[in-house]
Structure formats: structure tokens, C-alpha cells
Inverse folding.
């Protein structure tokens, strides 16, 4: 869908028309166009977003102890994880 939007922008279609056609907000189309103009691509960079707080092993451990003790609160699970590591 992103490449179709960029293609229509290059063809001269207005951002407002594209927003209506794809049911998007104007900021989405504007940011996509800016990104394409600056980098020549619309792909997301790897590693964007907030860094993970737990590893995959810790996630598996948390799911196991949460299933064993369904009534445990998040704070108790956090304490158990801290004791485990």
C-alpha cells in the first residue's frame, strides 16, 4: 500500500485525494512522502521502537510461572523473575 501511495503522489495526485481514497489521516501520507524524499525508500529501519526489557528466555519463564500460579500479581511475577535471574 505504501508504494501505491508514493506512486500516486509522483503521478501528481493530491495528498487530500489519497487520504480520502485510502482512508488515512493527512499526517500519515505527509510523513510517508517526506521519508521517501529524504531516503528514497519507504522501508522501516530495523530496531525502531522501545528496547525490550526482557529476553526471550525470561519471557518463556514468565509465561510458565504465570500459568502455574494464575492468581499471582505482576509484582509477584517480577519478584520471581528477579529471584530466578
Amino acid at each position: 500500500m505504501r508504494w501505491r501511495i508514493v506512486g500516486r503522489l509522483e503521478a501528481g495526485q493530491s495528498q487530500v485525494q489519497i487520504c480520502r481514497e485510502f482512508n488515512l489521516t493527512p499526517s500519515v501520507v505527509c510523513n510517508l512522502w517526506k521519508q521517501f524524499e529524504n531516503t528514497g525508500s519507504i522501508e522501516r529501519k530495523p530496531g525502531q521502537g522501545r528496547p525490550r526489557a526482557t529476553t526471550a528466555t525470561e519471557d518463556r519463564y514468565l509465561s510458565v510461572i504465570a500459568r502455574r500460579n494464575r492468581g499471582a500479581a505482576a509484582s509477584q511475577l517480577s519478584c520471581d523473575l528477579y529471584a530466578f535471574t
Observations:
- The two ends are 44 Å apart (CA to CA).
- DSSP finds five helices and no strands in the chain.
- Residues 26-39 form the longest helix (14 residues).
- The helical segments are 2-11, 15-22, 26-39, 56-68, 74-84.
